[in-house]
């Protein structure tokens, strides 16, 4: 019995848990829908355009309705009040002219009083100078005293009017003057119903709300159509941009529906062109790396195979081949080191070891280190400094850039040539100029010389041991310092590289 009971309780607990999980899943689904609606639809341009159109279309209608109804109410009350005051003034003049305040109203005046009360569905009372009600069309308060602010003000010669929409009545007072004088002998107090005005106002209000509702529907429908049409070009742009993730499309984007879409199209096309260029450069770089690394290995394999097929090769031949193998290994090592330098620069772009450095001393150290290479090539190196220069730089990377520029100027020079290195600065930048009397660079090749593995003269580059990475390394080092490097060259007349780097490094 205990086990059976336990099983029952477990079953009930499992059922409760399932129901709870089901309700939790429903709550998660509802929450997800709400989150998507809030984060996507409410922030979409289409929703905001629709909302703007609806607001612009409906809010003026509501404001106009309120203004019209208020104007109608005010105008209707003014007209009714003016008519009532005019009738009371006429009747008061007749009462005052006959002196009926003291003698009492004639049957004709009483009839006119009753008729006026009936026409306006109201109550009219005649009050004498002692504030006593002498006539009351309702026959309720005749002979009683009435003292009110409006009556007192009217006895001073100025009629009053009151409109009370909550109690739905209009009340006016009109003075009764003593014949031939400005003295007020009595007051006519008329209270009439404002039901006609308020009922008409309610009908107009209902009609106006119907008109506003119909207008709102029309405006909303128009807003949805216009919103869809307006954002359609942006949807096409979005589709084109999403297509980039699947592969570069050969067709560029041409969406000229608006000025903004034209600008977006131009920016997208520039980005797409840049991405294609980068992709082509990446593929070319991979191919060049494979080729450059494979060439020394192929040479080493040929040399090794040549030695293996010769059983009794002389020692001199072994030494010659081993020397060639050593050169190829050294070339392979240099290519790998240059590649590692490029990769290291790419990875440490945000972690430069920037310090205040004396650029004059730095350049002198570099030129002193390269002096043996220049002497071996019979090239004279001259350094000219126009002023002391101190700047915030990463000494290792700037040294690498200057070394590559000067070493290239020495290697690609003529016998008995010269290399001129100049250092100058202004208030914001320092400038390093490396000029040589070398072979020069053709005009069509100058825009490619900073590309990795690019060589102007491949055969001559291999003779002097170039890897095609020196200028790429130099440019990367300068760019990391927010600087720029430019080249000016003519074939047979030499080359000049100009480097500009900020004196203060800004992240």
TrEMBL record:
Keyword Phosphoprotein set for record: yes
Enzyme Commission (EC) number: 2.7.13.3
Domain HAMP: 228-280
Catalytic activity field: ATP + protein L-histidine = ADP + protein N-phospho-L-histidine
Transmembrane residue ranges: 47-68, 208-231
Compartment annotation: Membrane
Main location class: membrane
Ranges for domain Histidine kinase: 288-505
GO molecular function: kinase activity
The protein's enzyme class: transferase
Protein keywords: Kinase, Membrane, Phosphoprotein, Transferase, Transmembrane, Transmembrane helix, Two-component regulatory system
Protein name (record): histidine kinase
UniProt source species: Claveliimonas monacensis
């Amino acid at each position: 019995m205990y086990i059976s009971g336990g099983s029952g309780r477990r079953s009930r607990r499992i059922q409760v848990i399932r129901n709870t999980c089901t309700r939790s899943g429903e709550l998660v689904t509802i929450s997800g829908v709400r989150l998507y609606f809030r984060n996507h639809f409410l922030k979409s341009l289409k929703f905001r355009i629709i909302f703007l159109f609806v607001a612009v279309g409906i809010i003026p209608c509501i404001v106009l309705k309120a203004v019209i109804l208020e104007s109608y109410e005010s105008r209707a009350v003014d007209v009714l009040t003016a008519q009532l005051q005019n009738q009371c003034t006429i009747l008061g003049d007749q009462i005052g002219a006959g002196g009926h305040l003291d003698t009492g109203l004639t049957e004709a005046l009483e009839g006119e009083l009753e008729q006026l009360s009936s026409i306006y569905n109201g109550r009219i009372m005649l009050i004498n100078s002692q504030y006593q009600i002498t006539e009351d069309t309702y026959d309720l308060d005749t002979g009683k005293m009435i003292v009110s602010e409006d009556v007192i003000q009217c006895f001073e010669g100025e009629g009053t009017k009151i409109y009370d929409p909550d109690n739905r009545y209009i009340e006016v007072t009109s003075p009764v003057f003593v014949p031939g004088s400005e003295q007020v002998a009595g007051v006519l107090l008329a209270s009439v119903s404002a039901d006609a005005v308020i009922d008409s106002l309610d009908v107009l209000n209902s009609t106006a709300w119907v008109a506003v509702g119909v207008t709102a529907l029309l405006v909303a429908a128009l807003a949805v159509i216009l919103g869809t049409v307006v954002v359609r070009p942006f949807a096409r742009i979005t589709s084109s941009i999403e297509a980039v993730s699947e592969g570069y499309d050969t067709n560029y984007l041409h969406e000229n529906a608006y000025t903004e879409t034209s600008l977006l199209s131009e920016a997208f096309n520039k980005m797409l062109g840049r991405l294609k260029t980068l992709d082509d450069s990446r593929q070319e770089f991979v191919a060049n790396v494979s080729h450059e690394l494979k060439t020394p290995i192929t040479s080493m394999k040929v040399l090794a195979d040549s030695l293996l097929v010769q059983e009794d090769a002389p020692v001199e031949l072994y030494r010659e081949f081993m020397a060639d193998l050593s050169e190829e290994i050294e070339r392979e090592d240099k290519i790998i080191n240059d590649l590692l330098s490029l990769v290291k620069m790419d990875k440490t772009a945000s972690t430069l070891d920037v310090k205040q450095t004396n650029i004059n001393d730095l350049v002198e150290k570099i030129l002193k280190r390269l002096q043996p290479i220049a002497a071996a090539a019979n090239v004279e190196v001259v350094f000219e400094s126009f002023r002391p220069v101190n700047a915030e730089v990463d000494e290792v990377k700037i040294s690498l850039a200057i070394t590559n520029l000067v070493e290239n100027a020495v290697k690609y020079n003529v016998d008995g040539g010269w290399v001129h290195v100049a250092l100058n600065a202004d208030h914001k930048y320092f400038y390093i100029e490396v000029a040589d009397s070398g072979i020069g660079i053709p005009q069509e090749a100058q825009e490619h010389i900073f590309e990795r593995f690019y060589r102007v003269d491949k055969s001559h580059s291999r003779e002097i041991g170039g890897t095609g990475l020196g200028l790429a390394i130099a440019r990367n080092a300068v760019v990391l310092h927010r600087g720029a490097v430019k080249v000016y060259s003519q074939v047979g007349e030499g080359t000049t590289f100009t480097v500009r780097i900020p004196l203060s490094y800004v992240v």
